[in-house]
Amino acid sequence: MTQRILHVIGSPRGKRSRSVKVAQRLLARLVEASPGAVVETLDLCSADLPALTGPVIEGRYALIEGREVADEVRATWDRIGAAVAHFLSFDTVVFSVPMWNFGIPWQLKQYIDTITQPGMAFRVSENGVEGLGAGKRAILVASGALDIRPGAPGAELDHQVRFMQAWLGFIGITDVHVVHLRPTYGPPEAVAAAMDAAYASAEALVADLSRAPSV
Ligand SMILES: Cc1cc2nc3c(=O)[nH]c(=O)nc-3n(C[C@H](O)[C@H](O)[C@H](O)COP(=O)(O)O)c2cc1C
Predict the structure, then answer these.
(1) Which of 65, 116, 170, 202 is buried most deeply by CB count within 10 Å?
(2) Does residue 18 line the site of ligand 1, with CB under 6 A?
(3) Which residues are CB-contacts of 72 (< 8 A; sequence separation ≥ 6)?
(4) Ligand 1 centroid from CA 109, angstroms
(5) Does the C-beta of 17 come closer than 6 Å to ligand 1?
(6) CA dist., res. 181 & res. 190, Å (int)
(7) Residue 186 domain-assigned (yes or no)
(8) CATH number at residue 66
């Protein structure tokens, strides 16, 4: 079956983005490992995402309760539904995700807030929350000026990778892999070494994932 891969770009830095450079290497290897795979790019800094304004949020409850809503509110919810369906149509999602103020860039947070809708990305029943993204794989190419990997001093400031893992788990995606790209600030040789290590880690990850599971 054709693999569908989505590259979600959370950095506004275009070609200068380090997390995009590493993700592009990773994507190239994924395609080599899975010939015919289709890769689509979603650059959140140029994407026209629907806005969750007050009337739109109120409109959701009105729609659930079967009440009338304004045409533009209904149209916005149609666009949100399409954005969720688009996200859920992929087998693998690769995120280029820089750390911004210990968390993630607001463009990526806006996307997450847009698509994480009850009844669309997850549902709640008497058994608890069921994420509707179950069975998918996510890969985070996580960049940061500081090195706050697990175990490093400052690791408790990580609201970037840990948030992404928590959110993905909430929508049912538990097959999550992380390529750390850090530190990206400091002496040029330290930054170059971080890039080399991230490229190597991306390649090793794809090699690992491509190995047939042993039975
Ligand atoms: C607004 C802003 C906030 C940032 N905050 C942090 C931070 O809290 N911790 C950190 O390690 N790096 C921080 N950085 C640095 C970026 O994470 C780093 O430059 C990263 O390599 C950017 O990835 P990119 O090249 O893919 O955009 C910040 C950068 C910006 C622009």
Answers:
(1) 202
(2) yes
(3) none
(4) 15
(5) yes
(6) 11
(7) yes
(8) 3.40.50.360
Write out the residue range of the structural domain in which residue 37 sits: 4-210
pLDDT tens for the chain, 215 residues: list them: 789 999 999 999 999 999 999 999 999 999 999 999 999 999 999 999 999 999 999 999 899 899 999 999 999 999 999 999 999 999 999 999 999 999 999 999 999 999 999 999 999 989 899 999 999 999 999 999 999 898 998 899 999 999 999 999 999 999 999 999 999 999 999 999 999 999 999 999 999 999 866 55
Task: Choose which residue among 44, 45, 100, 107 to substitute to test ligand 1 binding: the one with the highest number of ligand atoms within 8 A of its C-beta.
Answer: 100
CA of 51 to the centre of ligand 1 (A): 25
Strand, coil or helix: 197: helix
What 8-state DSSP symbol labels residue 9? E
Q: How far apart are CA 199 and CA 138, in angstroms?
A: 17
Q: Is residue 181 part of a domain?
A: yes
13 pocket-lining for ligand 1 (C-beta < 6 Å):
yes
Q: Is residue 190 part of a domain?
A: yes
Decide whether any atom of ligand 1 lies within 6 Å of the 122 Cβ.
no
Residue 214's pLDDT is 56
Does 215 map to a domain? no
Lookup result for tokens 């600030």: 185
- Which pLDDT score, from 0 to 100, does residue 72 have? 95
Q: Which atom of ligand 1 is nearest to the CA of 17?
A: 25
Q: Report the number of distinct structural domains present in the chain.
A: 1
